Amino acid sequence: MNNKLCRIFACLFWMVSAGYGMAQTPLSAIDWFKEAPQDTQGPVQDPYIEQNQKAPISAPLPDIEVAPLDAADFDAIGLLPSNLTGLPISMWKRSSDQDLLRLLSQTDVSTIPAMQSLTLQLLLAEASPPSPQTQPNLFLRARIDKLLEYGAVDAALAMLERASPLPADLVPTFFDISLLSDALDPICSEVLGLQDRYPYDADRIYCLARSGEWLDAVLMLNTVEALGELDPRLAGLLHRFLETEQVADESRNLAPTRLPTVLEYRLFEAIGEPLNPATLPRAFSVSMLSGDAGWRAQLDAAERLAQSGALASNRLIGVYSQSDAAASGGVWDRVAAVQALDQALANDETTWIPDAFDQAWTVMSAARMLHILADLFAERLLDAELEGVHKRRSILLGLMSDAYKLAAERIDASNEDLSIVPHILSGTWPDKWGSRPAQTPLENAIFQAFVSPRVPISVQDNLSQGRLGEVILQTIRQFEQGAEGDPQDVLEALSIMRSVGLTTTAEQAAIFLVVRDKIG
C-alpha cells in the first residue's frame, strides 16, 4: 500500500514541477490550484477596501479554528492541510452531511477555471467532518464521487491512499477507482483479503483471475451464477474473460444497455471489445492517457480532462506534441495548430507567430477551448509583443490565464471596452464609472460587487454559524447560474467570495466573464 501511495504522490509532484516550476506558491502542490495562498486565509477583510477606505463588507465572518484531526475519522481526510489552503478545518463541522451532499449533487462540473480550482480545493482540503453525520464515510465518498465527475482520478486515489488502511465499506470504491487509473494495477489484494465480507462477487472473480487463481475464479463464477446471484449479462462477460466453455453460447447478448460499471468497462476491454470512453462519464477517459489505445484516443481523453481542469496544460501539450497530425479536421486541426504556434514561439519567428496564432485561435475557439489555449500560450504570446488584433487576442487570452495581471497592464485606449479589468484588480473606481453609457448589465453587476457588495441575510446567518464550506459551495453554484445570464446572481456570488477572503477567485471569475462576453 505504501508503494502505491508513493507512486501517486510522485506522479502528482512530477505534474506540478513540470507545469509550474519550483517558484510557485505552496498552494500549487496540486496541479489544478491556481490560487495564491493569501487568497484563502479564511474570511478576511479585502485589502483593497482597506486601502481605499471603502465601507467594510458587513457579512459576519467565522473565526479560523485549528485542531488535530482524528486519525480514525475518514470524512476528515484530505490532501491539502489548512496551512496550505488557508481554509479553517471547521468549515464543514457545523453543517449536516445531508445538506453538503445535496449541494455537491447540485453542483455541476464547471467550465470556468476559477470555479474549477475552488471546487477541487474544497474537495481535497483537510477539514473536520460535518455534524450531524447520518452515516460514517458518507461525506468522503461524496467528495470522491465529485472528484471523479471532474475526472480527477489520481487525486481520488491519493485521497483513499491517505485513508489507508481503509474500512471495508470503502474498499469497493477504492477498487473501482484503481480500475479507472492508467498507471495503477487493480487493488485485488484488498478485495480478496476481505473474502466473503466483500459485497460484490464479480469483483472477487475478476481479482482471483488477475491473481493467477483461474480455477478458483471459474468455480466461484459457476457457483454464484447457479445460485442466481449474478446478473446474466455480467456473468457472460466474465465467462468471456475467463474463456470458459460457456463462451460458445453465441445467443448471449453482451452489449451494454445501461451505463457500464468500471469492472464491465475493463472486461469489455479485456475481451477485445472496448467501449468508447467519450460516451461515458469523464473519469473513464483517464484510462486512455497511457496511449495503449492509440494516439487519437489519448488526444480525445486529454482534451476532455483538460476542459474540466483535471489535466494540467503541460501534460496536454505533451500529448499534442507526440507526432505530426495524422489527418485533418477536428482534433487533428487543433494538433497541427498548437504544434505550429508552439514552434513559432519557441523559435521567436516574429513573421510566423501572427499566422500561427490566427489558426490556433480559430480552431480552439470553434471547439470552445480558448481557455485551454490561454493555459498553454498566454504568457508567451504577451511576451511576443504583438500588434493590432493579435495584441488584443493575446490580452484576452492572458486575462483568462494565470498571467491575468500582466495582461491587464497591456490594456490601453485601443482596448477601452476592457477598462473594467484594471479597476477590478486595483479596487479603485472612478466616480464616472457608475453612469458609464457603454456599461453592460454584467459589468454593472461586477462594479456593484466591488463597490457596493450585497451579501444576503441568509448567507450572513450561515457564516455567523460557522458554515463556511456550505456557503462556498452555494456560492459556486450561484455564480455558475449567474454566468448563464443572471447578473444579480453574479453580483451576490462575487460579493460573498470577497466577504470570505476569496479575493483572487472573485477577480479571476469576474474577469473571465468579461472576456467571455467580449469574445462572444
How big a fraction of the residues is strand?
under 5%
Q: How many domains comprise the coordinates?
A: 4
- Structural class determined from secondary elements: mainly alpha
Q: What is the number of strand segments?
A: 0
* Low-confidence residue ranges: 1-38, 40-71
The biggest sheet, with number of strands, parallel, antiparallel or mixed sense and barrel status, is:
none
SSE order in H/E notation? HHHHHHHHHHHHHHHHHHHHHHHHHH
Radius of gyration: 25 Å
User: Distance N terminus to C terminus?
Assistant: 49 Å
State the share of residues found in helices, binned by percent. 55-70%
Q: Give the integer mean of the pLDDT values.
A: 85
Shape: flat
Oligomer: single chain
Protein traits:
single chain; about 525 residues; flat; disordered N terminus
Protein model, in words:
The chain has 520 residues and is an all-alpha fold. It has four domains: 2-186, no CATH class; 201-279, no CATH class; 298-415, no CATH class; 420-519, no CATH class. The protein has helices at residues 2-19, 47-51, 82-85, 97-106, 113-124, 138-150, 153-162, 171-180, 188-193, 201-210, 214-226, 232-242, 262-270, 295-307, 313-320, 331-346, 353-366, 370-383, 388-399, 404-409, 420-426, 441-451, 457-464, 468-483, 487-499, 503-519. The radius of gyration is 25 Å and the shape is flat.
